[in-house]
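# nightly structure sweep
# worker-07 picked up a monomer target from the shared queue
# config: single-sequence mode, recycle default, output format = structure tokens
# input follows
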Amino acid sequence: MQTIYQKAMLAKKRLEDVIMPSALSYAPMLSKLAEAEIYLKKENLQLTGAFKIRGAFNKIASLIEKTSEKTSGAINGVIAASAGNHAQGVAYAAKHFNLKAIIVMPEATPLLKVSATKALGAEVVLSGDNYDEAYTKALQIAKEKNLVFIHPFADDEVIAGQGSIALEMIEEHKDINTIVVPIGGGGLIGGIGSVYKQACPHVKIIGVVASGADAMMRSFKSGQIVKVDSVRSIADGIAVRDVNESNFKLLQHCVDEIVSVDDEEIANAILFLLEKQKLVVEGAGAASVASVLHRKFHIQPKDKIALILSGGNIDITMLSVIIEKGLLKSKRKMKLQVVLVDKPGSLQGLTDILSSVGANIVQAEYDRTSVMLKYGDALITLALETKGEEHQILIRNKLKAQGYVFNEIS
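# output follows
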């Protein structure tokens, strides 16, 4: 029987005309913060916006090869369950091989991922509150319509496809001594870890889960599968509830450590990558960076660490929320509510004061009908661009000195 490493070698050949190798990029600002050499493997820049195209394409290509060796048994079509990235990988591969594809996605899947999957020619069925419920529905449809189910992570050919990432990194940078990989179902880290443990066994493999979907980490640390009742995370790509037994066993052999990051830390990493690296990365893809920014594992000054940015298909609405909250937390924006006497000149007096201290008003709402107000008063809600904490202190002091009573909205 072939090992994952051997299968990954074959996968790499199958993927040559499909995958554009994503070079390891040195991250100077992150390296300075971590006090080590940090490199980014930017799988968010793949054709479908994520690494998943590797495993999906390799699996379907292997099925086509096996079918061509037989005189009968043609594939009727393929089906998958996915929160988005695997969906696009399967849809792309199915279109490439002229196969029918049905993708079952959780009902709350971001519109961006649904639309992208449909654009690749696949039929989308929305079902369930999470991946696991969508998975159950997909198995039902597969049986009813005689379709081949393409598992997103519990399949050797899929895992081998993801392992092609490791082969690229080894060819490019043999000095890397630590690889940090997001974990959902475990296919990505299983593929990368298996290849490294055979080709470069000294390299440390660290997995990162979302704290709201940490069943794999709990299982890994306890040595047996631990179940959780539900999952919740902005990193929908790794929000997997149930631990697959075969992947769990694989991770026990090829992973050295698993850590977790919470939604706040993931959001910080998304914003960091957007501002400092000019990269749009989804929650799952930013988990590896979050683990470094928030020191989730021990880093030594001589370490050379590769972080896998697994995907970039983030919903625009979610991204806007992360940016807005990030500006508020970093003191580059503040929101104030001020009660004014509702008469000509009152609002101008307030804006003149804010202008004098260099606060830029980017949004204003004027409400005179709230039942909480006295007759003759108006409530002004302002969003201000500011230049940090000292600037905000100056704004507060100036308003207080002029007799204004205000509340800050966090």
